[in-house]
Design a protein that fits this description.
Structural class of chain B: alpha+beta
Order of helices and strands of chain A: EEEHEHEEEHEEEHEHH
Oligomer: heterotrimer
Largest interface: A-C, 168 and 171 residues
Strand content of chain A: 15-25%
Number of helices of chain B: 5
Shape of chain B: globular
Number of strands of chain B: 5
Distance between the termini of chain A: 22 Å
Chains: A alpha+beta, B alpha+beta, C alpha+beta
Strand order of the largest sheet of chain A: 1-9-10-11
Structural class of chain A: alpha+beta
């Protein structure tokens, strides 16, 4: 009886968004009289950070500080239509809608400022700190707040914008499956190190080394949250989770968290992450959604590492101790496949 | 339905409620006292989301009979910080990006509060032990463990009091 | 214990990293609410006199409802209202009817026949949750138990019980024609016949619970002016609103949905089961009604990630090239469609994974069984098949004696490669991810593998081409109920025709902005919008393309075990550009063949580390810096003159570093003028335009992919 070390690899790409039936998102942006901007959406923040990333996108596009933007979502009376938070579509679709709405609001803001400064709007730029100035002449400037006041009380202008981003439907061809399924792809590769106890069948993941390509890390800390939490969920799926442990039998299904198992804080796996950023041409500031794809490579990499460790190919998830032990018994014991 | 009176101290305030006979503490706090900071995750006592402190000890309010807290001191996340002033523990969760959906956060904060009061300088393993009854589906736990350790460093024994007070 | 590094050195020439807010580790907007417990989840809205709703659920997998006796429950204290199926105004729906996909197949409250354990047949509204539970327990349902089917193969047998009357063959109907979604690209049967190895296996996911800490639910209440407000934990606000309006047969303007702050979802909060019943309860009682899953329901009645079974058959050459891949996918949808039909199309578009394989076929089935309906979960439609593909890649590597990572690199897709769904790959980065992950894990790769790039070698020869593709009409709707029909793709002696090489339809692109000023200025979007690899623009005639592209190299296995990680290894290679100098202009760029890159063993570049411009550890293993951004050739855009139309002297996109200090690359849009079509003429063609094709128009053999077609308007 022994502990066997194993190493496994997997790499994946992940489709961002889904074009099957047409995929729209809308956004509205408007300013208060003192030049703060409200973004109205119907996007859903499940914890992935929709409110935060759309806020950063709006601030960047408007050219104003983050603190001067607030995202309000989701109230169907004030937020325009959005399909929802799924299919890794949120950042891509809603981000693009916010860019369009914020661009229109920015243009209105620059035109209002141009009137006050008596220049052409095209000669103006924002400093990202709350002021608008003539390109190459920072002293000829006006604050966003003064611009908004002038627009509201003097010029009769709204500093507002509307945006919709729509991927029209792309149906799959019945005979060949030809389609335009998605907009862009995120990528990931990772190496799993683990140990298999051939007496108990227990698999313990000891390290993850990973590379994730996310287009652009629009907020690196939010990306880190997704990648760390996603890898945790991948380990959980691979080794623990199912509602039907003897699928397709319906018996023995978990009804509480005493029976639906997940790794706890005592099973944190050291995870060494590299983030690559290859901006996608059609994505907001190049960013792809990292939230769904990050769990996917963990599952097969663990299965491959278990095989490397003890020679058991476990092709039915989750890889429970029972399945490992059955595989070991079938093989007549552990068959380590060699160190990598 | 006949209501039963129960009196206890909630976050330092004398509180009296009339409750259903079999009401659990979580419902009494949320719908009776209007303190919505404890959340219901499972109502089975298996996820820790509803954790509150009863006389300083972390307890699962979903499986605690409301009647049983008569005369005790009950604390919830609403007790952390003071107005706009956040406790070092809360600040550590903010700076450490230790929440995503935020639903488990109040329970985590209360489990950590009990730990830091008892043990102002916990080891990593002691932090893990303290929150091992609290589930999180988003973060993978590590940012939460790190944040609690950081709160201990920055706030010490006062890690759960606003402004080190 | 976690470490994270941002490899800004990679793809650096495609990014402008000097943005104000983007790319910065800003605090979350919602974080103070989270740490103070003030974030308003749906259940954090207090209502005076809140009523509680719970469902009567089937204890059987499959049963006909003969009668329901409500009398005891109706008399119980605290019971306010029993909700029966006939109280639901339009008691039939399918989620994707909102986008016209599929037929209505699921009742909100089942009036006739239950098809899974836990299916709701009625609901109780009471003054407390406890009273609602007691009343539910007091309702007796007289069931006639029917034969059920839980296994995928059994469900596809000709004599299987019919799970879902809307789809009486136990499979979703695709295109009103087939019982599955097909993918056909090239000729897998011919390629299998020529392959050195056939590697086949099956892979199975089991159902997984999303397990958000907050269970699914909603609170609805009468609002002023004859409307209803609904606080909800939905992941899709307007899906839930539209579904509610349809099931309750009411104008959507009478509904006011509020959500957006959700305690985790992971896909499990898309199904819109709670909002319609909560609003119906509020309508029937005139009072606020809460309807939510308890944890047990969440785990066993709430829709899980469905079980998927994938069978993969690969044709592999000795050198590690996969020349054909066939998939047979079975999605266990459970009793009703929900979103499984959609996931299958998504999965089909994903095949064959991130690899360039010249012959691909798949049949994927949405199969109904008497279990809890499946729905979305993180990675929906992809996680299961990625598990299968990546386990399979390791089996292929073992068969041909290849290193698992190198096998993937040999077959990895690159910019310009044609994908099986007949769209060209772009913006790829699989190779770089593999290289970086290997490097971090100190998993040594051979120098030629470490030198591969997603930007080079893609789209050459057969890699860019759409092969001639035999088609078949096997698997017509209902055919399987009458006779045994193979599940797997292939001719099975019944070819229906052939799609000629090179034939493809038009790529779907985003709709353009309504107005010019909804378009962000190009210099502010922070990246080059059309970075293209240096692959030939014209694929040329394709009639002579062989089913299995010839190898130009000795077999992979003969070179095994491969020398790795050391420049002194006796391997040979012919990889172009051994030094990090910028590649020559596009038109003159060398065209290294795939086979040269992946298979030949020739001397590595001399001193790759000493020629590296940086100390990046990757480069010490022979990694080549990515080539600088290449302007598009002039024929990428209409020859309208002005900047950006000459490939020789103008950048195709402006960046902070190349833009002169003051001039604006695009003219100021005039709000007084009518919206102008984004024609691409002049300087404005540099704008960030996600709606515009990277390549466009109908592609035919011998025709440049860039010259035909017009921009969408």
């Amino acid at each position: 009886m022994a502990i066997h070390k194993g190493r496994g690899f997997a790499c994946i790409n992940y489709p961002i968004g889904m074009n099957l039936g047409g995929d729209p998102s809308q956004a509205l942006v408007h300013s208060t009289p003192d030049g703060k901007f409200k973004v109205a959406l119907s996007a859903i923040d499940l914890g992935q950070g929709m409110k935060s990333v759309t806020r950063q996108i709006a601030a960047e596009t408007l050219g104003v500080p983050l603190d001067d933007v607030y995202v309000d979502t989701a109230d169907s009376d004030t937020g325009p239509h959005d399909m929802g938070s799924f299919a890794s579509r949120g950042t891509h679709r809603m981000g693009n809608a916010v860019i369009r709405a914020a661009s229109e609001a920015r243009q209105a803001m620059l035109e209002a400022a141009a009137d006050e400064l008596e220049v052409n709007a095209s000669d103006l730029e924002t400093d990202g700190r709350g002021a608008i100035h003539v390109k190459g002449a920072p002293s000829r400037s006006i604050t966003v707040a003064d611009t908004a006041i002038a627009a509201q009380f003097k010029q009769g202008r709204t500093l507002s914008g509307r945006g919709i981003f729509l991927i029209p439907p792309s149906e799959a061809d019945p005979m060949t499956g030809e389609m335009t399924p998605v907009s862009c792809y995120a990528h990931a590769a990772l190496v799993i190190d683990l140990e298999v106890d051939d007496e108990t069948g227990v698999v313990t993941v000891t390290a993850i080394n990973s590379a994730y390509e996310v287009g652009r890390a629009l907020n690196p800390k939010l990306v880190e949250q997704q990648l760390v939490g996603g890898a945790w969920m991948g380990v959980s799926h691979a080794l623990y989770e199912t509602t039907e442990p003897y699928y397709p039998a319906r018996e023995h299904g978990a009804e509480d968290f005493n029976h639906y198992l997940m790794p706890g804080p005592g099973e944190i796996v050291p995870h060494h992450i590299a983030v690559l950023e290859r901006p996608a041409e059609d994505a907001p500031y190049g960013g792809k959604g990292p939230g769904e794809m990050c769990a996917n490579p963990v599952l097969p990499a663990i299965a491959n590492a278990v095989y490397n460790a003890v020679g058991v190919r476990c092709h039915q998830l989750p890889i429970t101790p029972e399945k490992v032990l059955r595989g070991l018994r079938e093989n007549g014991g552990a068959r380590p496949q060699g160190r990598r | 339905m006949v209501k039963t009176p129960v009196r206890f101290t909630l976050n330092g305030q004398e509180t009296g409620l009339f409750i259903d006979e079999a009401a659990n503490l979580l419902e009494a706090l949320r719908r009776g006292a209007g303190d919505l900071t404890p959340k219901q995750g499972c109502a089975q006592g298996t996820c820790g989301t509803c954790t509150v402190l009863i006389d300083g000890e972390p307890r699962l309010s979903c499986i605690t009979l409301a009647q049983s807290v008569e005369g005790t001191h009950v604390e919830t996340t609403a007790s952390l910080g003071r107005g706009e002033m956040l406790a070092p523990l809360q600040q550590a969760f903010i700076d450490g990006f230790a929440a995503q959906c935020g639903f488990c956060t109040p329970g985590m904060l209360m489990a950590a509060t009990a730990l830091l009061r008892r043990n102002p300088n916990p080891s990593r393993d002691e932090v893990i032990e303290a929150i091992s009854g609290n589930l999180c589906r988003c973060t993978g736990y590590e940012p939460i463990v790190d944040a609690i350790l950081e709160a201990a460093r920055s706030g010490g024994a006062a890690g759960t009091r606003a402004g080190h007070g | 214990m976690t470490t994270i590094e941002f490899r800004k050195d990679l793809f650096a020439d495609e990014r402008d990293d000097n943005l104000n807010e983007i790319g910065k580790p800003k605090l979350r907007q919602d974080i103070v609410g989270h740490v103070t417990g003030r974030s308003p989840y749906y259940d954090d809205h207090l209502f005076e006199g809140l009523l509680h709703m719970r469902c009567v659920r089937s204890p059987h997998h499959h049963a006909r409802i003969r009668a329901i006796d409500y009398t005891r429950a109706e008399a119980m204290p605290g019971v306010v209202r029993i909700v029966r199926p006939q109280d639901v105004p339009h008691n039939i729906n399918t989620l994707l009817s909102l986008i016209n996909f599929g037929r209505d197949d699921e009742a909100l409250l089942q009036p006739d026949k239950v098809a899974y354990k836990g299916e709701p047949v009625a609901a109780v509204i009471a003054t407390s949750e406890r009273a609602a539970r007691d009343a539910v327990a007091a309702i007796t349902v007289d069931y006639e138990v029917l034969a059920h089917v839980l296994d995928l193969d059994a469900a596809l047998a000709p004599d299987a019980p019919i799970v879902n009357e809307t789809y009486p063959n136990n499979t979703f109907d695709y295109h009103e024609r087939f019982d599955h979604q097909k993918l056909r690209f090239g000729d897998v049967d011919a390629a299998f016949a020529q392959a050195d190895h056939i590697v086949e296996d099956s892979y199975q996911m089991s159902p997984i619970e999303q397990a958000p800490l907050e269970t699914c639910g909603a609170i609805a209440a009468p609002e002023t002016n004859d409307r209803y407000v609904c606080y909800t934990g939905t992941q899709a606000l307007f899906f839930s609103l539209g579904t509610t309006a349809k099931l309750l047969d009411m104008a959507s303007s009478r509904l006011h949905f509020i959500g957006g702050t959700v305690g985790g979802g992971f896909g499990g909060k898309v199904d819109s089961l709670h909002e319609p019943l909560a609003v119906l309860g509020a309508m029937l009682t005139g009072a606020p009604v809460k309807f939510c899953f308890d944890r047990e329901e969440e785990m066993q009645v709430g829709a899980p990630r469905g079980a998927e079974r994938w069978h993969i058959k690969d044709g592999v050459m000795n050198d590690g090239r996969i020349v054909a891949r066939a998939f047979t996918g079975l999605f266990d949808a459970g009793a009703y469609t929900r979103l499984s039909s959609y996931a299958i199309v998504k999965a089909t578009g994903h095949l064959p994974g991130p690899y360039t394989i010249p012959n691909i076929a798949s049949n994927v089935y949405c199969v109904y069984t008497n279990r809890t309906p499946a729905t979305a979960m993180r990675g929906f439609g992809i996680t299961g098949v990625d598990f299968a593909i990546e386990c399979h890649m390791d089996q292929v590597a073992e068969r041909v004696g290849a290193d698992p990572i190198e096998l993937r690199l040999i077959n990895a897709y690159r910019d310009g490669d044609m994908k099986a769904h007949r769209r060209s790959a772009k913006n790829t980065a699989l190779i770089e991810c593999c290289q970086v992950a290997a490097q971090k894990a100190q998993w040594a790769l051979s120098p030629q593998m470490a030198a591969l790039s997603s930007l080079q070698g893609g789209g050459e020869g057969w890699r860019a081409q759409i092969p001639a593709t035999p088609t078949d009409a096997v698997g017509q709707i209902g055919e399987r109920r009458r006779q045994t029909v193979p599940l797997e793709p292939g001719q099975h002696g019944a070819p229906a025709g052939q799609v000629p090489a090179g034939q493809a339809g038009e790529t779907v692109h985003a709709a353009p902005p309504q107005r010019e000023d909804m378009q962000v200025a190009p210099e502010r979007i922070g990246h080059r919008t059309a970075a293209t690899p240096g692959y030939p623009a014209s694929p040329g005639p394709q009639r002579s393309t062989p089913v299995v592209p010839p190898a130009h190299a000795p077999a992979y296995a003969s070179a095994s075990p491969s020398p790795r990680g050391t420049p002194a290894a006796p391997a040979t290679r012919t990889f172009a550009s051994p030094t990090p100098q910028p590649p020559p202009p596009l038109q003159a760029s060398p065209a290294p063949a795939l086979q040269d890159l992946s298979l030949q063993r020739q001397p590595p570049p001399s001193s790759p580390s000493s020629s590296s411009p940086s100390s990046s550890p990757l480069r010490t293993t022979g990694y080549q810096p990515l080539p600088p951004y290449q302007p598009q050739p002039a024929h990428h855009r209409p020859a309208a003159g002005g900047p950006g139309t000459s490939a020789s002297n103008a950048p195709a996109a402006s960046t902070a570093s190349t833009t002169p200090p003051s001039p604006a690359p695009s003219p100021p849009p005039s709000t007084a003028s009518p919206p102008t079509a984004p024609s691409g003429d002049g300087p404005a063609s540099d704008a960030y335009r996600p709606e515009q094709p990277f390549q466009r128009g109908v592609k035919r053999p011998g025709v440049s992919r860039f010259i035909s077609g017009t921009r969408r308007r």
